[in-house]
Amino acid sequence: MAASSRRSSSAPLPPALVEELATGRILFASTEFLELSGYPSGELIGRAAAELRLWADQKASDPVLAGARSTPVRASLRTRSGDIREVLVAVQPGAGCALATVAVPVENGSRLHEIVQSGKLFLELVENCRDFVCVATLEGQVLYVNPAGRRLVGIAPDADVTGASLGDYYTKDGACFVRTVVHDRLVEQGFFHGEVQMRNPGTGEVIDVEMDSFLLPPQTPGDPPLVASIKRDVRETRRLQARLAQAERMESVGRLAGGIAHDFNNMLSVVLGFTDLARGRIPAGHPAAADLDEVTKSAERASLLTKQLLAFGKQQAIHGMAIDVNEVVRGLERTLRQVAGDRVQVEICLSPGQSVVSAVLLTLVANARDAMRSGGVLRIATGEEVLDDEAGHREALPAGRYAALSIRDTGTGMDRATLERIFEPFFTTKRPGSGTGLGLATVYGIVRQTGGAVQVESAPGKGSEFRVLLPRTDRPTPRSVQPLSRPAAAKRHARVLVVEDRVNLRILVERCLREAGYDVVAAESGAGMAEAALKADVLLTDVALRGPSGPEVAAELRRRAPRLRVIYMTGHDPEAARALKPSGRLLPKPFKPEQLLEAVRAELDDAA
Fold this sequence. Notes:
Elements: H1 3-6, E1 16-20, E2 26-29, H2 31-37, H3 41-44, H4 49-52, E3 73-78, E4 84-93, E5 97-103, H5 109-118, H6 120-128, E6 132-137, E7 142-145, H7 147-153, H8 172-189, E8 191-199, E9 206-216, E10 226-233, H9 235-279, H10 287-312, H11 325-340, E11 344-349, H12 358-370, E12 376-387, H13 389-394, E13 400-409, H14 416-419, H15 439-449, E14 453-458, E15 464-471, E16 495-499, H16 503-515, E17 519-523, H17 530-534, E18 538-542, H18 550-560, E19 565-570, H19 574-577, E20 585-588, H20 593-607
Parallel strand pairs: 11-12, 16-17, 16-18, 18-19, 19-20
Antiparallel strand pairs: 1-2, 1-5, 3-4, 4-5, 6-7, 6-10, 8-9, 9-10, 12-13, 13-15, 14-15
Helix pairs in contact: 9-10, 9-16, 10-15, 11-12, 12-15
């Protein structure tokens, strides 16, 4: 039967559901019934109609469990919102279950009864159902497959499948499962609900389906029992569930990474500070001078790792910038070719676009190089992609225009297990000592913070393609912070209040300020500092304190001393810290003594 000849554009298909006769448990509900009742599938399937109070008049009888009727009966359907809908219910019982179609009465009620009773609506329902619907013998010989089922497994619309083996459309394991478990369950209980894998014999494509099967009563005595099956393709659902689980896992890891980076920045401030103080006390030619310089370099490299962790943990502010993608790629072309190496042929294809971060491009090119140790081709392409509502839903992005950056290599590729973990911090497939495992984690953090997404396609031996989507924006590029360039001596006999709950960092800050000539009052909290604030010029406080936060401490002290200037120390990115709405200068950790002194001097200059 051709689907086109059966479809009706003038009238919707009737809603339908299947209930287990013994318990009233709902085994199947069509999309139309879900729309009529307002229930999502997950709240209906497997639950009893009585438990849901689905039928408002259920105390009298469940219209579905009452059995076959010569004419449809009137019933009251209670929707999920509690509204009552008067409907007509026609029932056809099977072995252990009953199939019911539900219709909303119209003025020409008698005509509607005739149509339902004739079975034409049941045929329309099956022919237009978007799920795989088939009828077969208990041994698996096909008698009927609806148009959607034919499309799913690659059966031609006009092909005669009568007598074909349904097992040909299952995977090997799936066919074995159906022959044993499903067959036995149907014989014993009359129905089966579960999952199985089908396949398209023409393409070899494996299809995960959710299956509801039930026995149909013989039409005449002596006929063999038949099995009706409804199978729903759940691949997209599983993919979305896996993506959600990964996003939740990455969010948890991101919070952990951000917390670690914040604490590590505090420790690095102490390392850099005391090293700098020690370095200033020994002559240039002293044997320990070079050692201290190496400590400083290592701490500075470690601070770069914390920035990557903060970016992954969404605690490093990343701005969308109005940047021509082509301009960025051209500007980095020489560097990209150097990063890729002589063995890798780099192809660059440019197309207008916006909003790309250079660090993302460099990281992905470096990863592609490592995947092509024996050489290969690296293709970098830019462009624009427009996501409609459906495509945006798949990527968890709003519909709209996105700048696209594609990095494709001909390297070793990755298996599925690796793909599931590549964005986790510290996960790496490189040999020990050759990578931090933060590169792709940083890419993920940067891209997600800009409101974009990273798509990855790869298979062992077939190379990899990373496709980055970033929202277009006309927002101007933020100005970069200029490095501190001059030493800062104390300005007059200024007094500085220091509030820092980490003892070693508080000692360092107090010592640096005292040696620069400032009067210092230091404490682990703002408690008891109200009187000192009246005689102070600057408050230097951490943003995140145990107890009242830095902004709360500053607000309280400035109520007493309105002219008190405020500097906030923060282990988070300065822009991210501004989410706490501090009103003052921000000093990001880790910092060196001269950066601390420069911040204090600048604040005093502003007050002059």
